[in-house]
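Structure ticket #2291
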Amino acid sequence: MTSPSTTSPEPAARTARVSLDRFQIGLLVLCGLLTVGALIYGGYLLTVFQLAMIYGVFCIGLNFFMGYTGQASFGQNAFACIGGYGSAILCVQYGWEPALAMIVSMVVAGVAALLIGYPTLRLRGHYLAMATFSLGLITYDISIHWTSLTQGYMGYSGIPPLGIAGFGIENERWKLVALVVLLGFAFWISQRMRDSRFGRGLRAISGSENGAAALGIRVPRFKLIAFVIAALYASAAGSLFAHTVGFISPEVFGPQMSIITFTMLYVGGVGTMIGPIVGAIVASLLPEIFRSVGKFQDIAYAVVLLGMLIYAPKGLSSLGKLFRPRKREEA
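Resolution: structure written out below.
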């Protein structure tokens, strides 16, 4: 017998929403306090948190494709490269407004993701991972060798800061505030999509593609849309980096960007709601915390990351389950 709660669409949508537990709320509050501390303290910490916010935007998109959809992509740095160079070229060479250049770059990245994803997403598992990784490498090589467009290793400098209608955010503290607002907006959009019918379809694909197809979900189309959404987020992050730092070069969007964002996503918790934000902030702060140990900085950083991955394989945002009463879990 089917109960009314499973046949009515409204209650079903309501039960699909997953609220944050107390531990995750505490993590978000702690991240907020650290950001406020950076605003007050200023100096180099402002730059660290600015980059953490930018990487947070990138990881939210990556989480949409890898976490919610359960697909592997090692080439999202390619779309960040499109966003960064798109903003740089349009603003420096053609004098466009930063906001308009950012939007146009996102559109270009979205179209590129659509064209690339259509044939690529027919692959699965390791084959898909290798195909996307080669996409990142190809984009990296293009950014180096197409010097007439990208200026090669010289890169672009003098990229104007974020702004609109002739107003630019020059102050470093206000830059961080603007990035926090944009990160919150990106997070809100992500959660809206996650709780929608489309988002539930993605999570069904993550569980079993064959099972999702049996339920009537058009798996290739859903995966392609998720890939495009992740590309839009990556492009936005690339543009934000260009307008925040004011300089870009091929090394910024190289393969190491994929490694860094993977680390952030898994430290925070892949497939979780707040994992991308927590992971971006924690992974950005750890190298600064261990800077005092000098030449052992990289070793200390690696040991802590390994410890996190071993003892918190589902990420920091999932640690709250360890403190949850057993009866509640069983219920």
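Closing remark: Residues 304 and 310 are 10 Å apart (CA to CA).
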